[in-house]
Amino acid sequence: MAQVATANQGMWSGGKSPFKVEYGKLMMWYFLMSDAFTFGAFLISYGTIRFSTNSWPDPNHVFRSFPIYGEMHIPLAFVSLMTFILIMSSVTMVLAVGAGHEMNRKEVLKWLGWTIVGGIAFLSCQAWEWTHLYHEGAWWGHNPFLNVDGTQASTNFTNFFFTITGFHGFHVLSGVVINIIMFIMTWRGVFDRRGHYLMIEKAGLYWHFVDLVWVFVFTCFYLF
């Protein structure tokens, strides 16, 4: 009986992490899974409306403007630049996490700084795009663009566009704030005193998730 009690106590007394993952990282994965369901619901709703409609605005016509240059004959040039910026920020985040594994504070600061710059640049591009579309008459409840077949388009296009890209932009903004906090903590030597840079890795998971979601947003709105 004593052996059974001892065995049960050893099994349930804690000390073992599920999947051998640190607690904070596991909770981050849970959060990202729940957030993925939210984005998935948005995009599935958009896809349902999009493909149940006979005609839809042409993204090559809607998204053909570029700062300073105005209307361009190269379709999706500006959003391609936005996508490149966000992908490169994901690369610099990988390098920051790698530097954290090596306990190299100087390199973490450098690559995390570039990640923050990339995030701010992406948000600036999105702010310009929103402002430009607003001046063209596009907003929630307003859609100035015609369908491909020349018929008047419903407001579903603009409603979904501003809601989903705005929701994603909020996540990018949150990621930038988190990365700034991580930068300050790294600069103050907090992680060196702790003996690890796990917080940088958790911030990296969130940032990579934001980048991955953008791939789906880009595909849904700008390519189809």
Automatic annotation (TrEMBL):
It is found in: Cell membrane. InterPro entries: Cyt_c/ubiquinol_Oxase_su3, Cyt_c_oxidase-like_su3, Cyt_c_oxidase_su3-like_sf, Cyt_c_oxidase_su3_a-hlx. This is Cytochrome c oxidase subunit 3. PANTHER family: CYTOCHROME BO(3) UBIQUINOL OXIDASE SUBUNIT 3, CYTOCHROME C OXIDASE SUBUNIT III. Belongs to the cytochrome c oxidase subunit 3 family. Residues 1-224 form the Heme-copper oxidase subunit III family profile domain. Keywords: Cell membrane, Membrane, Transmembrane, Transmembrane helix. It comes from the Bacteria. SUPFAM superfamilies: Cytochrome c oxidase subunit III-like. The keyword Transmembrane applies. Its main location: membrane. The chain crosses the membrane at residues 26-49, 74-99, 111-130, 160-184, 205-223. The lineage of its organism: Bacteria, Pseudomonadati, Bacteroidota, Chitinophagia, Chitinophagales. It is a multi-pass membrane protein.
